[in-house]
Amino acid sequence: MGWLKEKIQQHVLESIDITTEISDEELLSTIDEILVLKSRENYISMQEKRRLRRDIFNSIRRLDVLQDMIEDPSITEIMVNGAKDIFIEQNGIISRCPKCFESEEKLEDVVQQIVSQSNRIVNASNPIVDSRLPDGSRVNIVLPPIALDGPVITIRRFPENPITIDQLIEYESITPEAAGFLEKLVIAKYNIFISGGTGSGKTTFLNVLSNYIPNSERIITIEDSAELQLRSVANLVRMEVRDCNTEGNNKISIRDLIKTSLRMRPDRIIVGEVRDEAAIDMLQALNTGHDGSLSTGHANSPADMLNRLESLVLLGADIPLLAVRRQIASAIDIIVHLGRLRDKSRRVLEITEVKDMNNNEIILNPLYRFTEQGVKGNRIIGRLEKVNDLYNTEKLSRAGISGIEICKAF
């Protein structure tokens, strides 16, 4: 019935006045009228009418075949590999979607519609862009000639209602004991860095930790594409980078935003993700009195995260490695490392304290570590177990928080 949809859609487009802006209701009314006319020529069942009505409306006003997937809460990832190949992740399993775009031109129209919503530009001379949908979903787009088989769109969807710590405990992503421990650290203004691989749940976990921030504080968030959903903070300033214009000017980077955020009287600064030379500005911000700040980064372990931060800092500043390590050891208090296990579950794998420097090396103090205990059906059984006590407790003492065992100095 693809030919029928194209025929009706063309008739709808010819029937509306493109020089004036029509409402969704007017467009749907026009589609209904033409469906009635066409059903007299070709029998169309009521079920097929409803499907055509929705598909034609989505094609003209929404994101075409992607719209139903975006509205499906069970789909967490949408991967478009050119006009004819669409894959989705549903319940942790990736599968091919039977739908496809009618042409590469239609896919390109959808691409431009997506980027225009977040004031971004993507074209042959600037073929890679990060964007977002109105619901906060993260979007990455790569166009030809970089993408050899047509435009590539990757959409990471987030739940409409942010996941809470109680849900993470229910999913066995973290234990109640570890959650209570992190709550005290956030309130006491420990600087916490969340590390993990792609799809391990870093942004979700950052949202969860932000719920522990007292609502009397002023928070500034800095992101490439605005994804964080901080619902419990009243005094909130959200900032997003801006790409350069068509002339290649007026770009606003994360480095620029971090620098200006220091003049905005923040109690805490939250940097969505550190992945370039902006790492040096983030560390300097943490070392200038903005305790309790949060950020995320890609890494395979807490130790790898520190090594990656060293590399990122050296990309943006010509300073001795020892000075970089001292900055990192001074700026970051806790690393929470997340992972996605082979059963597709997302777990907190390690909570580690950045203790201090010794022999020019950063010393890590593992506090909690995930231990696998077996497999039940398709589910990995394991627990986040305490392995050491917190060493640096000064911030807890200043905040008047007790209930965490103090590791004696040695």
Task: Write a concise synopsis of the structure shown.
This protein is an alpha/beta fold. The protein contains 13 helices and 15 strands. The protein has three domains: 1-61; 62-157, Beta-Lactamase (2-Layer Sandwich), CATH 3.30.450.370; 165-398, P-loop containing nucleotide triphosphate hydrolases (Rossmann fold), CATH 3.40.50.300.
Task: Please describe what this structure looks like.
By secondary structure, this protein is an alpha/beta fold. It folds into 3 domains: 1-61; 62-157, 2-Layer Sandwich (Beta-Lactamase); 165-398, Rossmann fold, CATH 3.40.50.300. Helix content is 35%, strand content 25%. The protein is built from 13 helices and 15 strands. The chain has helices spanning 2-15, 24-41, 46-61, 66-71, 104-117, 165-170, 176-187, 202-210, 254-261, 279-286, 302-316, 321-331, 394-398; strands spanning 75-81, 86-90, 93-96, 128-132, 138-142, 152-156, 192-196, 218-223, 235-240, 268-271, 294-298, 334-340, 346-358, 361-376, 379-386. The strands form 2 sheets. A 9-stranded mixed sheet has the order 9-8-10-11-7-12-13-14-15, sandwiched between helices. The chain has a 6-stranded antiparallel sheet with strand order 3-2-1-6-5-4. A hairpin with a 2-residue loop joins strand 14 and strand 15 (379-386). Helix 1 crosses helix 3 (46-61), helix 2 packs across helix 3 (46-61) and helix 10 packs across helix 12. The protein is elongated and about 80 Å long.
